[in-house]
Amino acid sequence: ARQVAHLAWAGFLQLVRTRVYLNILVAGIALVLASLAVERLSAGEGGRVLLDVGAAFIALVVAVLAGVVSITAVTREIESKVANVVLARPLGRVEYVLGRFGTAAALVLLANLCLGGLLAAVLALTGGEHAGLAFAAVVFASLEGFVIAAIATFFGVGSSSTMSALFTTTVFVLGRLSGELSLLIERGKFGGATPLLKAVHAVLPHLPAFDLTPLAHGTTTTAIDLAQRAAYGGLYA
To answer: What is the pTM of this model?
Structure first.
């Protein structure tokens, strides 16, 4: 456990200062600020549109960040043989993969803390409601980033960086559409392919489970439900 934590921390310190991570973080900040324009065009609604659009932008940016960081931390190290140098130490392959996943998870959490704080501040300064909910929703959505990082790592240890990015993007898009896919399956839209699609739906990550922004529109939830969502994200990762 100590070796995994040390490897994760060393990777965090290395990647948090890279141009790629900082550029993606800056892009997230720009998108949060750009969501103000959408809020103005929507005639306000107490900041709910700003919350929805801002949280959606952050989720997209962090998903990209999770995939890029995981590919950088694992796949490219394997391709460049840097992983061989690390594994030459008294460190197992499982510990190596867990350590690199820990690096990606820490960077995802840091990004969501920064961007969530920014979104909450923008809501508060513009007189919108739900500033506290915005921060909580973005931080809770870190679970989605953890899942994306785990998927990218899973594909990355057995394929090239290009294929890992392609597979991860595909799973992310399908995972985001898992609710719509479930509805189509229930309506019998796929005929004989329904059993196969049910299996695909069961394997896909149900990423909308990590979205708390509907709470701003009157949807209610419980602590047990939130705990179940968090447990699902952790187990899937």
So the answer is: 0.87
